[in-house]
Specification:
Layout lengths: L4 E3 L2 E3 L6 E5 L5 E4 L1 H7 L3 H4 L14 H11 L5 E8 L5 E12 L5 E10 L2 H20 L2 H15 L3 H9 L7 H5 L6
Antiparallel strand pairs: 1-2, 3-4, 3-7, 5-6, 6-7
Helix pairs in contact: 4-5
């Protein structure tokens, strides 16, 4: 029996469900667990060797993925709040951790992502922020969206990591925020 709840167009995962995928360095899926397939409404043959962006929701600002790629390309792990789309038109919010996998020579060979259902409070805060960032991207460009994020975080007097930690209160959620300073908060 499925542990997924569908409310309107949104999928809510059970707290114990973990969505796992592995991509090559180009972002093509080379592995995904049964939960990934169930949540996203795909068969394995439909996603293996396809770009991970197959689940990217159009509401997500590209600037968040620019930050993610810049961090993981440095060999650093990152956590982020992501809205994904499913094969059957639903969407879901996830707190995702992405970790680079390296070979013996410390060369990045793949990326592993695992996520859990994002808490409602986090969604309520991140969705409007992402909506504004996306609108800025559509009207101006990605750099302007990143500048908005930097300004937003300055107004909150927090780094992105502190902001997410504040939203998650004692859940020990470290995220892209810890590493964002390497990208835009220099």
């Amino acid at each position: 029996m499925s542990k997924l709840k569908k409310v309107k167009n949104e999928i809510k995962c059970a707290t114990q469900q973990i969505i796992v995928s592995r991509t090559n360095t180009q972002g093509d899926i080379v592995y995904c667990n049964p939960t990934f397939l169930e949540v996203n409404g795909f068969r394995s043959s439909e996603v293996i060797h396809k770009p991970h962006s197959i689940v990217r929701h159009p509401d997500m600002p590209k600037s968040i993925f620019k930050i993610i790629w810049s961090i993981i390309a440095q060999g650093l792990p990152i956590q982020a709040v992501i809205k994904n789309k499913t094969n059957d038109g639903y969407y879901y919010w996830t707190l995702v951790t992405i970790k680079p996998q390296t070979d013996r020579d410390n060369k990045i060979i793949s990326y592993v992502a695992y996520g859990k259902q994002a808490p409602n409070l986090v969604i309520k805060k991140m969705e409007p922020l992402y909506n504004i960032m996306k609108e800025i991207e559509d009207d101006i460009d990605i750099d302007a969206s990143l500048e908005y994020l930097e300004s937003y975080l300055r107004e909150e007097n927090m780094t992105y990591a502190q902001y997410i930690k504040h939203l998650n209160k004692h859940r020990e959620f470290r995220c892209l925020c810890d590493f964002i300073k390497h990208v835009i908060l220099k």
